[in-house]
């Protein structure tokens, strides 16, 4: 099996289209299609489903993409190992992160790293979970910050390692004028019939909310769909809806229009992880250490918050 053709398959799978992958690889789409056809003939099975919206790997294609990501990652690791031996350490760190970690956790870490290594180029990419593991496996990204909500299954590692940075409790947030704002104890059953704010179907915080509702045999109504916690807090501040919000997000909020409580009998959380290769390069390992320290500090702050009005 030709490694260059395997790389083509991985690039097409990541890009979602042959034309976009061709642009990234600086070749023509027809040349890329020829390489894919040769790879399909070599393995004896169709690897891509082509449609008007782009291409998607078939079941066999997904298997080969996962293996291809690890192969490419190993080749890039080998190249970097030789460069390091010759004293030419890589001068670039590429990091993928979801939005709230990108706003609350990453900036201070990158600022400290930049002070220590002013010549290293830093790159940041927005990636919402569960995506991004393949980019780390293939070494297109050095690090990925991702999460898992209660009730959501973690993706397979696929040649990477995963290290938990913090456990972020989910708090119930109500408008200050809500009928339960003064209650000492609030169960999920007390919120039956409320208009919830959460992500759309399949978004992790929505999956979490549905899992909690199923556990307590309730049917909750999500009236306002958004995965952006800034929008969520804006709606709550205007007196609209109820929601579960990570404590780390609320740590930066001081709004008398909001009331924060813990759900009685339930302890939902958002676990935040960093994902990297099995043998990270020294600079990558340093960023992991900085993220771990920052995550531990944020976790202490999140668990130390008192319930009440921020």
Task: Using brief descriptors, characterize the structure shown.
310 residues; alpha/beta; disordered C terminus
Structure in words:
- This protein has 310 residues and is α/β, with parallel strands linked by helices.
- It has helices at residues 3-15, 18-25, 29-43, 59-85, 99-104, 106-116, 133-137, 204-215, 229-237, 247-250, 282-304, and strands at residues 48-51, 54-57, 92-97, 121-126, 143-149, 160-175, 195-198, 221-225, 243-246, 258-261, 269-277.
- The strands form 3 sheets. Strands 3, 4, 5, 6, 9, 10 and 11 form a 7-stranded mixed sheet that branches. A two-stranded antiparallel ribbon has the order 1-2. Strands 7-8 form a two-stranded parallel ribbon.
- Helix 6 runs antiparallel to helix 11 (282-304).
Q: Average pLDDT, to the nearest integer?
A: 90
Instruction: Tell me the number of strands.
Output: 11
> Roughly how much helix do the residues carry, as a percent range?
40-55%
- Rg over CA atoms, rounded to whole Å, is 22 Å
Structural class: alpha/beta
Q: Secondary-structure element order, as H and E?
A: HHHEEHEHHEHEEEHEHEHEEH
Percent in strands: 15-25%
How far apart the termini lie comes to 59 Å
Secondary structure tally, helices: 11
What would the principal axes of the Cα set say about the shape? globular
Low-pLDDT ranges: 305-310
Largest sheet geometry = 7 strands, mixed
């Amino acid at each position: 099996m030709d490694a260059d053709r395997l790389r083509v398959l991985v690039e097409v799978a990541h890009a979602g289209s042959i034309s976009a992958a061709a642009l990234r690889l600086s070749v023509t789409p027809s040349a890329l299609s020829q390489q894919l056809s040769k790879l399909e003939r070599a393995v004896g099975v169709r690897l891509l489903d082509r449609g008007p919206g782009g291409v998607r790997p078939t079941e066999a294609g997904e298997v080969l993409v996962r293996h291809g990501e690890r192969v490419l990652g190993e080749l890039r690791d080998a190249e970097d190992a030789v460069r390091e031996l010759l004293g030419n350490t890589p001068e670039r760190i590429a990091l993928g992160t979801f939005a709230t970690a990108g706003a609350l956790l990453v900036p201070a870490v990158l600022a400290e790293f930049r002070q220590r290594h002013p010549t290293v180029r830093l790159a940041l990419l927005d990636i919402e979970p569960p995506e991004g593991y393949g980019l780390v496996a293939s070494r297109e990204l050095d690090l990925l910050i991702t999460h898992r909500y209660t009730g959501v299954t973690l993706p397979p590692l696929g040649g990477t390692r995963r290290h938990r940075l913090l456990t972020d409790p989910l708090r119930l947030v109500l408008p200050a004028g809500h009928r339960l704002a003064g209650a000492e104890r609030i169960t999920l059953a007390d919120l039956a019939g409320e208009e919830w704010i959460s992500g759309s179907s399949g978004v992790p915080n929505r999956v979490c909310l549905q899992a909690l509702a199923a556990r307590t045999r309730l049917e909750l109504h999500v009236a306002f769909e958004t995965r952006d916690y800034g929008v969520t807090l804006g709606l709550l501040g205007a007196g609209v809806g109820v929601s579960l919000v990570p404590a780390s997000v609320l740590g930066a909020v001081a709004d008398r229009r909001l009331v924060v409580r813990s759900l009685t009998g339930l302890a939902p959380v958002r676990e935040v992880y960093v994902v990297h290769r099995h043998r990270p390069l020294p600079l990558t390992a340093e960023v992991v250490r900085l993220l771990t320290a920052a995550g531990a500090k944020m976790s202490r702050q999140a668990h130390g918050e008192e319930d009440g009005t921020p």
